[in-house]
């Protein structure tokens, strides 16, 4: 049974705020932050954008790329840590907006930054078992960082949708295998009703990100009997530019392999869309036969690793919707005051 | 804002620009009509999903927003002529200084408004400049 990506679509809001502008407000050293984080600016949603509207835009681009009949979709799963409703699924809004309703199932996923890839795995299971024809998995976020917190420099907005299927004639990228590594690690959380997440500072690094990414990636390489040099590209969850670069080096992947998918310096951490955004950016420029290794990470904590091989079909769909680099170009830069307004940090009476 | 059932009944039109078309005379309707205004009882109405592309017929810049829209002001409210013919009123998202009559637009999915912090969030179609 071959399961794979039939189509994909990404969306990034137009607005950006630069690290210098945030650092100016809090009296931080912008140069030190940029060098440390390897992030220079981050995406900011418009006043009328949220995780649901971003998920819809990404899903519509995925549908435009595939050209398939939306009524064939049997499941829509949206992963996010910023679902607009606490109770009322984002996925029903997306499914209605792409015309996939009503003969289908839907649910929302939550696993910090890897809720999107968890949705991909769920769709792979349903598609692979023959329970559904096509499944749509989405990661979308308008992530929040408390004013003055370190997270504010990277918490960004974006979304990626992946349409998964099993018809070989339709598959643009075969997923040869997936592997997850999960433990109870309190490196990052947000309590019910609280506007901003809390995190363990440096504790998020070694026991959180690196332990899970390295073990998840190694687990999949062992399972498939592949080595880093077997892959043309690699993508790792990108909360900043430094972590994925270091993880790649620890595992034996080169800078050349990770460069096409490393989008965090220009848009920040898009949370549930982060690893998927790297995969989308890589698929945008991949050639038939190319192999992509990807590992997503979610605090709490866990990782999902994927091994992907691109098929001839990719060239047919690549340019039917905007590429990630097209979505990232022509940003509109805003100051902190406008950023605060866009993010709802200013409350009107 | 509007009541929940009232909004829900129009979900198809709000989300996906679903309207109708008369097979008899070829006229398009948005919002959807059940009876053709030209052909009356000989008209044959069928569902039609608009492409969403069109142009600005006229527009105004709203500074003093209605209740529920305060956070979006200033915003552009325009009459848009869809390529199939019907006109509708919608926000056009983008730099107000760049708006002009005749500007080509395309649809986007956005938050239209919400009933405070406790109520429903209303989603639907707005427009952006076609080259945005």
From TrEMBL, chain B:
Highest taxon of the lineage: Archaea
Residues annotated as domain ChsH2 rubredoxin-like zinc ribbon: 12-40
Domain ChsH2 C-terminal OB-fold: 50-110
One matching Pfam family: OB_ChsH2_C
Protein name listed in UniProt: Zn-ribbon domain-containing OB-fold protein
Species: Methanosarcina baikalica
Lineage: Archaea, Methanobacteriati, Methanobacteriota, Stenosarchaea group, Methanomicrobia
């Amino acid at each position: 049974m071959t399961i794979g990506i039939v189509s994909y679509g990404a969306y990034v809001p137009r607005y950006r705020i630069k690290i210098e502008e945030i650092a100016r407000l809090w009296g931080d050293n912008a140069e030190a932050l940029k060098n440390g984080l390897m992030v220079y600016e981050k995406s900011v949603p418009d006043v009328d954008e949220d995780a649901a509207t971003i998920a819809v835009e990404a899903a519509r681009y995925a549908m435009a790329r595939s050209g398939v009949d939306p009524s064939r979709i049997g499941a829509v799963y949206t992963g996010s840590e910023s679902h607009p409703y606490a109770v009322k699924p984002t996925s029903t809004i997306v499914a209605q907006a792409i015309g996939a309703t009503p003969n289908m199932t839907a649910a929302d996923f939550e696993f910090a930054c890897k809720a999107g890839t968890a949705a991909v795995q769920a769709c792979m299971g349903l598609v692979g078992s023959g329970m559904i024809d096509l499944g749509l998995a989405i990661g979308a976020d308008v992530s929040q960082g408390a004013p003055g917190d370190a997270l504010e420099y990277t918490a960004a907005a974006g979304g990626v949708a992946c349409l998964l299927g099993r018809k070989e004639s339709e598959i643009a990228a075969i997923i040869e295998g997936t592997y997850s590594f999960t433990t109870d690690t309190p490196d990052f959380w947000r309590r019910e009703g609280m506007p901003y997440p809390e995190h363990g500072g440096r504790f998020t690094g070694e026991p959180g990100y690196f332990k899970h990414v390295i073990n998840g990636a190694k687990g999949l390489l062992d399972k498939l009997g592949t080595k880093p040099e077997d892959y043309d590209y690699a993508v790792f969850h990108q909360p900043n530019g430094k972590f994925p670069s270091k993880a790649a080096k620890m595992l034996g992947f080169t800078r050349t392999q990770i460069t096409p998918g490393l989008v965090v310096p220009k848009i920040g951490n898009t949370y549930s869309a982060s690893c998927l955004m790297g995969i989308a950016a890589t698929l945008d420029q991949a050639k038939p036969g190319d192999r992509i290794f990807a590992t997503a990470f979610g605090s709490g904590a866990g990782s999902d690793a994927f091994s992907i091989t691109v098929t001839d079909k990719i060239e047919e769909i690549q340019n039917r919707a905007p590429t990630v680099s097209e979505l990232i170009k022509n940003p509109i830069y805003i100051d902190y005051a406008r950023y605060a307004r866009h993010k709802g940090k200013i409350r009107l009476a | 804002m509007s009541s929940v059932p009232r909004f829900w009944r129009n979900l198809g039109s709000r989300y996906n620009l679903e309207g109708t078309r008369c097979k008899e005379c070829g006229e398009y309707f948005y919002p959807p009509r059940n009876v053709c205004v030209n052909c009356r009882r000989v008209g044959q109405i069928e569902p039609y999903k608009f492409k969403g592309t069109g142009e600005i017929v006229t527009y105004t810049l709203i500074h003093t927003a209605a209740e529920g829209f305060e956070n979006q002001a200033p915003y552009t409210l325009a009459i848009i002529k869809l390529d199939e013919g019907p006109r509708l009123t919608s926000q056009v998202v983008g730099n107000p200084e760049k708006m002009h009559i005749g500007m080509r637009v395309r649809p986007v999915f956005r938050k239209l408004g919400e009933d405070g912090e406790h109520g429903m969030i209303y989603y639907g179609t707005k427009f952006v400049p076609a080259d945005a």
